[in-house]
Amino acid sequence: MKKHTNEGHDFSMQDEMRRAFAMLSGKWKLEIMWLLHQRIHRFGELRKAIPGITQHMLSAQLRELEADGLLLRTVFAEVPPRVEYEMTEKARGLGPTMEALAAWWGEYGSTIPARPSMRGRKQKDLSAVKASRQSK
Questions:
Q1: Which of 39, 102, 103, 27 is nearest to 71 (CA)?
Q2: Whole-angstrom distance, CA of residue 73 vs CA of residue 65
Q3: Which residues cross the membrane (predicted)?
């Protein structure tokens, strides 16, 4: 793999990709980015659009994406306060990657085994209820 120098340090492309993947890793970040790729969203809209995400986790993921310069948070001085989230120009550079992933899914998605759509605490609670019903 080709090496290149960055501020006196040698980094391979694998190291650089690891850094890129780390920015987008997280259970919900890609889903958030996909939604923001479509349009500007308010916090409540994002929460409703992502089944199973908690308010705390959504806030944490949004803060991380904002700190990495991938989204812009705009607070409007209104009562009640309104907050909107949108992708930055840097994040819009990921658009072709997102479109390629959507095209890949369109071609091969039907060949992937289905998984339960619910995630997080709600899925665990539902599984526990089902297990207790089956044991009776």
A1: 39
A2: 10
A3: none
pLDDT digits (tens, 9 = 90+) for 60-112: 999 999 999 999 999 999 998 899 999 999 999 999 999 999 999 999 999 99
Is the CB of residue 83 less than 8 Å from the CB of residue 73?
yes
**Beta carbons within 8 Å of 41's beta carbon, 6+ residues apart:** 35, 49, 84, 85, 86
Neighbours of 70 (CB within 10 A): 22
Q: Where are the beta strands (DSSP E) in 1-81?
A: 3-6, 9-12, 41-42, 71-76
Q: What is the pLDDT of residue 12?
A: 87
